[in-house]
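Q: Is it fine to ask for two folds in a single conversation?
A: Yes, each is treated on its own. Send the first.
Q: Here.
A: Result:
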Amino acid sequence: MSTEKVHIMIKRWTKRISAVDFVMFIGIINLKVSLGTRNKTEVLTMKIKSKSAAILCAATLLMTVGCSNGSETSSGSSEPDASGISGTADVSGAPNAETNESGAVSDEDIINSLNNGIIIDSVSGNVYKNEMNANPISPNIFCADPTAVEYDGRLYVYGTNDQQQAEEGTTNDYAHIKSLVVFSTDDMVNWIYHGRIEVGEIAPWIYNSWAPSIVSRVEDDGLTHFYLYFSNSGAGVGVITSTNPVGPWTDPLGEPLIYQDMPGLENCPAPFDPGVCIDENGVGWLSFGGGTPADGNTMHTKIPKIAKLGEDMLSFDSEFVSIDAPYFFEASELNYIDGVYYYTYCTDWQDHKIGWEEYEGVDVPPACSMAYMTTKTPLDADSWECRGPYFYNAGENADGSSGLRWANNHTHFIEYKDVNYIIHHTLLLEELMGGTAGFRSIMADYLPMDKATGDIPITAASKKGVAQIKPVDPYTYNSGALMFTCADIGYDKVTDPAAKSTADGAWIYVRGADFGYGASDFIAEVKGKGRIEVRLDDISSEAAAFVEFDCADYTKIRSDGFAQFDGRNHNVYFVFSGSDIELKSWKFSKGDEQLRPEESIASTDIPYKTVVFSGQSEPGPSPSAMLDIPKDGDYSIKSSSFDKDSAVLNLGFINTDTDAKYKVLVKSLTLATENGEVEIPVNKELDPASTTENGLENGWGDSEVGSLVYGTEECGIFAAETDIEWINYRLALKINGEETPFTSITYNVTVSGLELDS
């Protein structure tokens, strides 16, 4: 783009600066509905450390291993295995993959495992997404405003990259987001993180990149073209294109497709939040809009717009038509289903009962809920029919409070493998981390749509999520970034990433792999120095296989020995001995071909108990930590962070279960201080059925001021005076007689006697 053109565009956008004011307003609204704010640095540093470091053998074999055909390639590029199958990612997760001209990988290209005797004696407890719940889809990446498209048998989900904002160490004001994120799945529970789409580099003219919407279409060149529309802050809509769902992406216009004060948008203060669809004739349609009208009429704003796209999907072939969406606020999306156009949007925060009598027979939308409208003639403004709400705000459900935090709302629905899903976002991952900065996470739930009538009954977000629809094939190369959940796992780079451990005992959990024959071999494409163990069904089980390695480049390592196991469906854990180990891909080799009866994959329909622990600091609210318990065993759970100088502490088991048959033994409390973590022995049993002496009060209820509650005289927790009446004392950490401030608590507990309903 010429310098002159850049100057012209800057002048034009300067006149539209009021859009930024609107965005700030949106950000303020979103922050107001969160429960508070906390610096993201606190969120990101809330790690439950391993109590024991991995023991390395004294004599380590040193070897220099080249990576002749495992070098990094562009997104989607990979290396073939012995059968010619793409070798650095799940085959279906790397469309249009480039293969190595040398053909199949020979045995010489795979290095046998070292055997230095590295011991992994503990695993990280820093897991936030529960192993029983399919939501959120990512256990470690904040993202929001999802959209989705199916390609080559996989579902690709795109979203606003809240993670980029989180890295700024601030509350989420969206100002620093100039990228999008991509995930994909073929089973709805295990997801590959494909990394970032760096929109700010692809289209340097943007303010921000939020709230994408995507469609695909086979064009005259025989290729599938992807059109990804996004909010340019609140000032308009941009579009980037690709012939691969994971990129590379290009900016075909070099400027916004839609901009503020564009002719025909006089009553659309923030022309953002695009929603795109393609009808049965191959015609594209785009909706968008946001903000509050100048006349203050919030029921009939007529702010959202829809238009027919040109044949190139990069221009318009109609005027902008207003949609009279009652109590409209933001989050436009479009779907075309069986000849009907579905327009969805987020309602505002006010009481919608006022004036709703004109929509007789249509349910009143709750505050900040998702509502929808339908038509068969989208350019006829009078043809749009209000159908009412279909999705609650995350903070509520049919019973009232959902237990999740209130937040803004944005959804997309998609049919995948003959099942209707709703993709949306909540603050769940941040809640599980104990943060309050407003960083969102993408979720997947069922959409109970009746396509025959167009009716969509209202539903709510769930932690449980959706069921696995097919097993993982362990006998093809799978991406190292494929996971259900994880602990202490990051990524090596922002595009086409490999999974990377960030602490000793880090691990990845992949749900429901169908081994069929058993397995005789394990191959991992790795980089770094250390050990990765394969454990089946239980994180604490003995290793079925392992690889040890010391390589500076990606290298395929074959397991040294393999424990026999049956060929049924297994959940697979990959456990890392230390930090800075990268896993790019993995696969197993089939064992003896002994078929076994077909069985269903692992199900999410497993009942469990939920235990909530509370830690009260003064001043401030009571942070809590929730523990989902699927079985007996040892658990670690971390509370929210406290202010640095907090001294008052009240610990407790706060949700009484009067029918409880199980027991909770608090083994120890680990307090994070300026001088490191301090573990205090407790060994007190909680009474989950108690309604009067709840929680750890059972252990200290009779303590006198100055007395030792837990630990030793040299290092322990002491009862001290406080002016908080309902606590009637405070608990202070003392080391050698001096009080030491702490910033968080880790509960180390053992649960036994758990009786689950069948």
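Q: Second one now.
A: Result:
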Amino acid sequence: MADGEARADDVLDAGNVDAPGPEARAPGRWQSFRAWRQTPFVLWALAAFAGLTALVFWHTFSGQPVLQSSDAKLWFLSGTVLFWLPLLLLLRDSPDNFAHGPSLRLPVVCVGLLVCLSGGLAAVTEWGGDLSGVLQDQLQGAPFIACVFAALALAFLPLAGNAVNLSRFQAAERRKTDVPRANIDGMNDSKDAEAMGALVATLVVGGIIVFAICAGIFNESVSFDNLIGIAIGFLVVGAFAVVVFMDPLSQLMPVRWLSRVFSFAARGARPLAAFYDAVDTFLVRIVAAMTGMEHRSVAARYGILGLILISLCLLGWYLPPEWGLIPCALGIVAAVSVSRLWSWVEDDRALAALTDFKPTTPYRTSMREDYRDETLLGFLFVFFLIPIMMSNAHWSGLFGPDMFQLPKGQETGFLDWFGYFGVTLIKAVPIVDWAEIYNFGQPRPGADSDLISMHTVASQHAVFMARSTVDLVLIASLLQAISITGRNRQQKRLYKAGTDPANKFRPGLIDRLDTFVEKAELRRTMMACLRPGAPWPEKHTTPAQAHKIHFNLNVQSTRPGLVDFRRYNADRLGQMHGEYKDPVARAFIAAISVERPDFDLTPRLVLLDNMAEKGAPESDLYTMLDRISTDLSETPANVNLTIEVLRSILFHTSRRAGLKEFKQHVIRLLATCQPGEEVIEALADIAGRSNPDAYQYTKVAAIEAIDQVARRQPTKQGVRAAMAILKQVQRCEPGTMTESAIRRILAGLQDLLKSLKS
């Protein structure tokens, strides 16, 4: 990641790439400062510092010590957030390099602050039993609570700001594509279906809530006897009958009339569906990104999510009960957001399989990670957050006094609440409700029990919501996991179906698998094809050696459980060979190229050019460039750097943002090519002479590369030629930063020319 935000001249230049005028070419210092992305936060920090300093001076020299009391000091401490917040916002990631994913700089600071806050509060509460009563009262007072929540805002708001920037960048990249994507969400029938689903879900959930409230109010005066059971039985039978006879019933006149009524209701419910979609998008794009889900490293995702949820659990338990509900609610929202992200990824995986991986498919996510384990980690903490919320709801008195009956009274601890929730969890397990049948968790006749029990209607509602949450979590996760397993098996069956045994290169009904299945099956197949006793392939292994010595490709057709990659999509095989770093996987694909006549191994540099031309995602471009850099450091003889291909890569990315480090790296590679005169000509075009790049940082990098090439083996003729080309670029008005770099380079080359003459 680049440090900081985009510079002012980059912003000015990006907005005037086609028609650079005098204002964009030569802004003053004030205009540049105003255009800088960090300017509002710098001014904010300066204003807050001035205000806080003025208050300290007033306290010290005015004779009116306004910060004398402990409460005043706590309020002042909470007010310092106005100064620290813009400083943390300065640590946001640069939009120029969001393709790398968020950096760890801002999450480390914010999560570290959250850990210190929760750990300090827990330590003071647990081991500060000998504190004076005044100090203990202060820990319960409004100034201290204000400090805690100010620190919470200081920890989460910068993460939210960074997530918003990342979401905007990803949205812009989804719009910037050479292939127009299908707009399935914009179809009227799709909108009506979503609206009807939202309406039905709202009515069902609302009906359940109303029924629960009525049951809690009237359960002592109204008997829910056999009449209710008869009604529910007929409703269930009617629902099954409607589903069974749906087609013939749809042709009846009353049903057609109801269909028109429902269609009208669906159109009226579109705002409700849009609201639910906005909430879902906010959870996935913003909240899930705040919890670290956009990071490439598994350790980073686990660490950020785990530390955030642990801190929220501690804050929920050790804060005053009425305030502890807020961190618990935030923790549940964080866990749900990760679950929704996982659901989005799985929906896109299913969509990719249905559309045969067409580039016009409107995916909502990048499908880079599975997020199954992250979802389970988040739900793990939900089972701790719910008993904490039950405890806070009871002791806060917000829902009435004495919600639950506590046999231990004030001595009731976390394990007691967790045990009670465990019994509730057993009773919430769907289908086989053995706990209710066998009276599990109830005291024996004539014996006392130390188990917490419900006491008021509010406690009944709390237990009902807890059981509902558990049911939703368990059922949703279980059904999704089962459907994923079945879909993976179905992909393999479709891949093998319809193949010709006599033609091992003829594909089945589909010619590729989704990314996650592909990776797992490739590893299984290549390990099965390794010849017994043969050495493992190395980086220098040739395709012929891989085919003859290391792999027996016929194993793919003899073992029924393996995927025969000889039938795999050729373009995808070439991309995999370029992207993969594992020498065994690359050698396996290379061995397939020996047998398959329509598949040739394309050099990684050419693959990168093709990807840039097709508008591939930034992460794929960076991955391929990293692989090329590794090849240059390990096997430079196998990498053919050419001016034409490198210039083509820069041309295809000249109008794309978010590739600062990518373009600079390609320019450095271009500067190493020969002959130097052609390299300088290509760099001059990039800097502004012909088909220039749209961003100042690329032009400046090209100018500096020209200086590097001219100094590599300097001659008087070569230096004069480089200076002449730089002056040509200068006459094309490339922009303020580039002109400044040209003047600096010209001065240095002039000195070099003088030394050569002497």
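Q: Anything structural to flag on that second result?
A: Two points. The longest helix spans residues 457-496. Residues 1-27 have pLDDT under 50 and may be disordered.
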